[in-house]
Structures are given as structure tokens and as C-alpha cells.
Amino acid sequence: QAALQDQTRTVRLPANRSREARRIMTEERQQEQRHMGPVTDEALAEAVDVDAHNVARIRAANRPNVPLDVPVQPEGPTLAETLADDDAVQVAEAVATDSMVQELNQALSGLDPRERHIIAHYYGLLDAPTMSLEAIGGVLELSRERVRQIRNRAFSKLRACASGPRLAEYLG
CA-to-CA distance for 134 and 94, rounded, in angstroms? Predict the structure, then answer.
């Protein structure tokens, strides 16, 4: 009997829980026949002297497994085909990225060209390669310290704009 019990369920129940489940299911069938309808967890718990929470858990565990290859509706898609699609997450991420890029472009348009250049290259924004302060200074013929000062001033301007708090999240 133990071997049969182990093989009939997708998830194995301990022997005591299996006996408890059989008692609950037997009592449930009897009460459904007597009352001609569904039985509450509380009524079953009282009849078999088990906690109502455990009755609910055991009844939930005894629901039949639903195969994923069965159509949801006649001539319709299967359950596996209707489950969440990985592409849906990618679409949501793309929308969030587009939103971020629009906010960033709007905020950067409030900076002067040199500040925009420094921020874009330091953070690798707007298809600009990521560069160190020293490398940016070499391109603009400024010292590393001067580039850092301009970057900090530009960053302060970005924080002060309406979308500043969200941009701070994007830029770190």
C-alpha cells in the first residue's frame, strides 16, 4: 500500500497526511451526499477533528493536476501557450528604457554643449562611449579636475530639473 501511495501522487505526502487526506475526502463525499452540495472546511474539520487550516491545505493538495497540453477552450490554445511569455517582460523593459532615454534627452537639453558632452561621455549616454574624466579632459583640452568640476555642476543642474530624482536613479 505504501508503494502505491508513493506512486499515485505528483508530490509525495507523508503516510500520516495521506491517511488524514483519505479521511477528509471520505467525510467530504458523505457530507456532500447528505447536504446535496459543497461542504465547508470548518464542517469537515469538526467532523474529522482536524484544524480547518489543515483541511483547506489538504483539500487544495488533492485537486487534480492539470496537464499543460490540454486546450483551455475547445479548439483553442493550450494552457502552456497561454502562460506568461518571456517576450512580454522584454517589451516592458524596452518601454521603460525608452521612457528613460526620453527623460534623459529632455534633461540633457537643459545643459550647455560642453556639460552635455562631459555627462554623455562620462556615463556612456546617447551612444557615446564611456570615458574617464582624464580622457574627456584630453578631448576638450581641460584638466581632469576641471572636467570633474563641470561634471558636478552639470549633475547639480540635472538634479534640480523636474525629472532629477528619477535621473539620479538611472545615473546612479
Answer: 33
